[in-house]
Amino acid sequence: MNIDDLPEGGTAHILAISSALPELAAKLREIGFCEGDEVQLLTRGPFGAQPLAVRLNRRVIAMRLDEARAIEVTP
Q1: Which of 6, 29, 43, 47 has the least C-beta neighbours within 10 A?
Q2: Which residues contact 35 (CB under 8 A, 6 or more apart)?
């Protein structure tokens, strides 16, 4: 399950950050995503369900679908 699979308002814990592009995984880690952290999908954007608004450590982060799909979570 990835962040984009969560329902709006749903929370989960990060299991892994993986991507075919190593620079994307590095970017997500620099932003602050880390295994074990709790994330919450707040809302989806109006155009193609993008961007996603995600709460991470009391911050709200806007993400594209490809970024959200690189983060594996468990509810």
Answers
A1: 47
A2: 14, 15, 16, 17
Q: Give 3's DSSP letter.
A: G
Q: What topology does CATH give the domain 3-74? A: SH3 type barrels. (2.30.30)
Each domain of the chain, given as residue ranges in start order, spans 3-74
Token digits for 27? 């970017």
pLDDT of res. 34: 94
**Bridge partners, 39 (sequence order):** 12, 56
> What residues are paired with 16 via a beta bridge?
72
Both tokens assigned to 11: 């929370």
What's phi and psi for 6, nearest 5 deg? -70, 145
Stretches in the chain below the pLDDT threshold 70? none
